[in-house]
Write a structure and sequence with these properties.
Blueprint: H1 9-25, H2 31-36, E1 38-39, E2 42-43, H3 51-63, E3 67-69, E4 77-79
Antiparallel strand pairs: 1-2, 3-4
Length: 80
Amino acid sequence: MDNRIGLTLRQQEVLAFIVQYYREEGYYPFLKEICEGKINGEQVIKKVASHGTLILILECLERKGYLKREKGSPRAMCVL
């Protein structure tokens, strides 16, 4: 993924993971799947330490306009 302005390295990694997961699976990952960092059993990114940390990363991506999430639905997100 290109070096996006305004994103930390970890935010870039998580965003790239979401994009790659969607391309390979055809749907967006659950939060648990993002935390694990695996696609088809292969470790793609380093595990996210906790669910709370992941929520903070996703909130930052949403605030910065890279991601849109719908509250109350675990896969309801899209990359903008």
